[in-house]
Task: inverse folding
């Protein structure tokens, strides 16, 4: 009976209005992909998910694959006054910076792409076992995948990495940018897919969001407006794009 109840458990994303799109939030122990072009809000989205968890006494692990972790902390503080330094010091959130020379995981053209991913996978397992987080955020996974030339290898690697995440008691967000055309394979392997974008509205650009897939549940099949303000991301509860005819 408990197992059946666990299957139904949902996780609060901490993003106002987003749980409605998912009809209740993410399922526990799932890998949730957020995709979109550069500047659409992916990094803020994942950071808000972690921040909310930490505020509710959960532990978080944040893995940065292309930007230094320090940049994220600075950006989140200057944008929203979210103090990840404080949370890190309190042991509530752990940052892993792939570019950190100590990890010897730098992306160089000398390192074979497969080798890089296998070391990344080992690092992920080690960190998850060390930190025992409730929430994991991997930002810009495409940085690890763009040198893989075969779609078969790409799919196998994504399945492998997502398998690691699902094998633990954690709920994850993985963001993927669309610059290198690997997003469809990453989305294919995910339990849910949320797409962020921009819609031209008169002379304005409006941020948009929709849930493209959620395994195991219905979703609200609407494109909604996503706002970023000093309080972070919120989703408006009316869709301006819904036809009334
Ligand atoms: N306080 C704020 N109010 C409104 N918008 C903000 C605020 N802070 C940051 N932003 C916007 O949020 C966006 C950040 O997007 P980001 O998550 O870095 O995108 P991505 O990771 O998809 O490239 C930027 O466009 C920035 O202008
Ligand atoms: Mg980003």
Result:
């Amino acid at each position: 009976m408990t197992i059946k109840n666990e299957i139904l458990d949902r996780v609060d994303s901490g993003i106002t209005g987003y749980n409605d799109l998912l009809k209740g939030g993410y399922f526990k122990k799932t890998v949730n992909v957020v995709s979109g072009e550069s500047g659409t809000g992916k990094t803020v989205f994942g950071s808000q998910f972690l921040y909310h968890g930490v505020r509710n006494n959960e532990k978080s692990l944040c893995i940065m694959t292309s930007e230094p972790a320090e940049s994220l902390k600075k950006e989140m503080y200057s944008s929203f006054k979210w103090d990840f330094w404080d949370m890190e010091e309190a042991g509530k959130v752990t940052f892993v910076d792939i570019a950190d020379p100590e990890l010897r995981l730098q992306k160089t053209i000398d390192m074979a792409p497969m080798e890089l991913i296998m070391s990344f996978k080992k690092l992920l397992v080690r960190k998850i076992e060390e930190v025992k987080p409730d929430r994991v955020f991997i930002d810009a996974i495409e940085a690890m995948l763009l040198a893989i030339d075969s779609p078969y290898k790409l799919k196998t690697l994504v399945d492998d990495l997502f398998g690691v995440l699902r094998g633990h008691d954690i709920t994850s967000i993985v963001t993927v940018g669309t610059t290198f055309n690997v997003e469809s394979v990453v989305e294919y392997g995910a339990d849910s897919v949320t797409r962020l974008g921009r819609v031209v509205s008169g002379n304005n650009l409006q941020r948009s969001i929709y849930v493209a897939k959620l395994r195991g549940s219905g979703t609200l099949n609407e494109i909604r407006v996503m706002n970023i303000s000093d309080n972070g991301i919120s989703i408006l509860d009316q869709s301006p794009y819904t036809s009334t005819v």
